[in-house]
Design brief:
The complex is a heterodimer.
Chain A: H1 17-26, H2 33-50, H3 85-90, E1 95-96, E2 99-100
Antiparallel strand pairs in A: 1-2
Chain B: H1 5-13, H2 19-37, E1 40-43, H3 45-60, E2 72-76, H4 103-110, E3 114-119, H5 153-160, E4 166-171, H6 177-183, E5 186-189, E6 209-214, H7 217-227, E7 257-261, H8 270-285, E8 289-293, H9 301-316, H10 334-345, H11 348-361, H12 366-387, E9 393-397, H13 413-417, H14 424-429, E10 433-440, E11 446-452, H15 458-471
Parallel strand pairs in B: 2-3, 2-4, 7-8, 7-9
Antiparallel strand pairs in B: 1-3, 4-6, 5-6, 5-10, 9-11, 10-11
Helix pairs in contact in B: 2-3, 5-6, 9-11, 9-12
Classes of the chains: A mainly alpha, B alpha/beta.
Chain lengths: 110, 480
Amino acid sequence: MSVGGARPRPQPAVIGSEQVAHVARLARLELSEDELARFTGQLASVLTYAAEIAELDVGDLEPMAHPLPLLNVFRDDEPEPTLDRATVLAEAPAAEDGRFRVPRILGDEP
Amino acid sequence: MSASAIALAAEVRSKERSAREVVEESLAKIAAGDPEIHAFIEVLTERALDRADEIDRIVASGSDPGPLAGVPVALKDNLCTSGIPTTCSSKILAGWRPPYDATVVERLRAAGAIVVGKTNMDEFAMGSSTENSCSGPTRNPHDHDRVPGGSSGGSAAAVAAGFVPLALGSDTGGSIRQPAALCGVVGMKPTYGVVSRYGLVAFASSLDQIGPLAGTVADAAVTLQVIAGHDARDSTSLAAPPPDVVAAVDRGVEGKRIGLVTELVDGTAPDVAARVRQAAEALAAAGALVDEVSIPQFRYGLAAYYLIAPAEASSNLARFDGVRYGLRVDAPDVAAMNVATRTAGFGAEVKRRIMLGTYALSAGYYDAYYAQAQRVRTLVADGFAYAYTRFDGLLGATAPTTAFRIGDRTDDPLSMYLSDTCTVPANLAGHPSISVPFGTGDGGLPVGVQALAPALGEQMLFALAGALERAAPDSGAVTE
C-alpha cells in the first residue's frame, strides 16, 4: 500500500441527528421525527463502516472520477432535431403556453 | 422459455416457427407464472404481438430481421421506452412515458428482438434484493420466500422462471451479476463505455453500465454484440468497435493464466466458497494455469463504492423536482413543491442514499469522504493492474451468499450493502465481468461464479465464461 506525504489524515465524525436534518434540508427532503431517528442510526452505521478508508494513507494517489481517460468530447456544432415539445410537455405535471408551469418562485408579491 | 435465444432466432429465421408463436408462448408463461413471481411491472401484450407479426412479414418477404429475430426480451424499468411507462420502480416516475427509446432498445429492435415487458427493480437501481420497489418485491423462482437479488431482480427472475430467454439490466455495483447469481442465470457487465447509456435513467454515471441477463453464455454474447458500439448521444461511449465476443465463447482457456482472487473467496459462505474452488479446479482441468492471487485493495472497494455511488446519485436525482416529469405534490411556492414532491415520491432507500451522498459531498466532509473514496478507487484500479501483469483473467464468487429470505436485510442497510462486496471492484475500475451459474449450495439454491477481465477484455471474459458453463454442475431446475 502506498505511503502518502504530510497531508493530515481526515477524521470524520459519526453523523448525528442535527447533521442528518441539515443534509435532508440540502437534499430537499422532509423527515418525520421517526424517520430522523431511524435514518440517523442507519447513516451512522454506514459512515462508520465507510470511515475505515479515511484511515488509509493514499494522499499521493490521484482521485479517480471516471474509469475512462476522456477529456471533453465535442460534436460538430450543427443543428439537429430535438425532442418534440408537445410530446415532452404532455408528460409534465403542468404546462402552459408551450412551457413548464410551476408555482411562484419568488416570495410575497412586492 | 426452454429454448435459447439463439435457437429461437434460428427457428424464426428459417420459418420453422413464427415469431407470433414464440411470443405467444412467452406471454402465456408470464400470464401463468408472474402473478406469483412478480418479475414484470408491465407486460406489453399487444405491442409484442404486433411486432411479432411484423417480424413474420419480414421473414415471409425473404428479408432477415436480424440475429435476435422474434426473440422475446424483458427490459429493466430504468431503460427508456418511447411512449411506454418507465418508472424505475419509483412513485416519483409513476406513469411517466419517455419521449424516446434508449439506444439499447433501438438496437435490440433493429436486431429483431421483441420487447414483451418492463421488469421490476430496486427503486432507481438502489438495492440488492428488489425489495425496494414501489410495486412490491419480486420472488426468486427457485424459492418463492427468497429474494431474486437486485437491483435487476425482475430481469433475472424473468429469465430464471423461463418467461423470456433474454433480458437487459443495469449494473452500477453488481446489479446485473448478483441477481444473475442468486437466480441461476448468466449476467454480464461490459467494460465501461462499451454500451451506450443514452436512455438509461442515471444512478451513478461513472459506474453504470447496461448488460444482458440470459440462460446461456452464448445468448449473453450475442446480446452484447447487438447492444454494444459507439453512440454519439453518450459522450462516454467508446469509439472503438465492439469486440467479437460470440466466437470467443467456444475458444477455451488452454494456457490462459487465471487468478483465483483470495478476497473474492474468503469471507463468502462455505457453500459458495466450495463452488468457486471447484470452478477453479474445473478451469485447471480444462488446461488453464490457475493460481491464487491476493488483491488486498479490494477490501476497501465497498466502502469507496458506498460513498462514490451515493454522491453521484444525490446529484443525478436532483432532477426529480416535480417540474418536468412524473409526480408533483402541489405547494404554494416552488421550493415547498420540490420538498413535498421528493418527500412523497422517493422511497426510504433512495432517501438514505441521497442523504449519504449529499453528506459526502458537503462542505467539511468532501475531502474526508468523497475525495478519499476517489483515491481509493485509484487504489482498487492499481490492484487490478498489478494482478493483470500476472494473469489473463480472474475468478471469484459473485455474491457472498446464495439468495436470502425476503425481509431478512431490509432493516439493516449495511448488511444489504455487503451483498455487493464481490462485485463493486469491477465497477470502480470500469472492467468487464460476468456471473455464470455453477451448481447449487445449501438448500439447492443457485451459486454464481464471477469471471473478470481487463478493460476491453470481453473476448477473454467470454472464453472464460464459456469454459465455466461447460464445466458447471447442474444449477437446479426451477420448480413451477
